[in-house]
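Preliminary data (for renewal application), NAP complex.
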Amino acid sequence: MDLKLRGKRALVTGASRGIGRAIALSLADFKVDVAINFFRNRQAAEEVAREIEARGARALLLKGNVANEEHVARMFADIRAAWNGLDILVSNAASGVLKPVTELNLHHFHWTMDINAAALLPLVQQFLRLPARGPRAVVAVSSLGAVRAIPNYTAVGASKAALESMVRHLAAELAPQGVRINAVSAGTVETDALKHFPNREALVEESQRRTPAGRLVTPQDVANAVVFLCTDFASMIHGQTILVDGGYSILA
Ligand SMILES: NC(=O)c1ccc[n+]([C@@H]2O[C@H](COP(=O)([O-])OP(=O)(O)OC[C@H]3O[C@@H](n4cnc5c(N)ncnc54)[C@H](OP(=O)(O)O)[C@@H]3O)[C@@H](O)[C@H]2O)c1
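Predicted structure:
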C-alpha cells in the first residue's frame, strides 16, 4: 500500500512506549523519518530508534518534558539542526493523576492539564516555525474519558476534553496555512498506562465485555487511524476527533 508518506518527517511525542511507539513504527513502515520524544525511558526510546532504522527510515531521539516550553523549544532546535523541517506532529505523550475527586487537589489538576492539553500549544507553535515539504498534519491522541465519566479519571478526562477543544480551535485557525489538525480518541488499550489505574482489572474486563467488536483496542488500531489522518487521503478532515473503540461508545 502506498500512502504517499515516503520522505516525510514526523515528531511523535511519548514514542518510547505503548501507543506512541506503535505510531512511530507504523509511520516508519511507510518510510517516514521519525523523531522520538521520550521523558524518562531512554533505553526504550533507543530500542524504538533501532526498530525505525531497521525499517529504512531515519530516527532522532529527543528527551524532554512536553509540558516545559524550554524543553519543547530545545527539541525543535534539534529537529531543525538534524532535518531542517517537519511535516507531521503527533501529540501523544500523556500522564496524569488518577484519584477520586475527594483526593484530587489543584496541583494534580494543573499538572495533568499542562502535560495532556496545554503542551499542544508550544508544540504546534514550534511546528509552524519549521519548513515543511507540503501540507502539514497534526494528530493529538485523546481518550473516551473526554466525553464519558470514568472512575478516578476526573483530571485526565477534563484534560482530554480541553485537548479536543483545542484541536477544533487550532484546526479552524490554521487550516488556511495548510495545517490539518485532528484527534484520535481511543477506548481502553493495554499499555503501561493502565498499571496506574487503581481499578485496572475491572476496567479491562468491562471494556472487553462491552465492546461490540469483541476485543480491546490495540496500540496498532490507534496507530492505523493516526497514520491515515497524516495522509493526503484525509485532506478534508479538519478539527475532528475520530473514535477508535470497537463500537464501545455507541452503546447506550
Ligand atoms: N492506554 C489506554 O487505555 C489509552 C486509552 C485512550 C487514550 N490513550 C492515550 O494514548 C496516549 C498514549 O498512552 P499510552 O497508554 O501509550 O501511555 P504510556 O504507555 O504510559 O506511555 C506514555 C508515553 O508518554 C511519555 N511521557 C509521559 N509524560 C511525558 C512528558 N511529560 N513529556 C514527554 N513524554 C512523556 C512516556 O515517556 P517515558 O517512557 O520516557 O516516560 C511514554 O513514552 C496518551 O495520550 C493516552 O492518554 C491511552
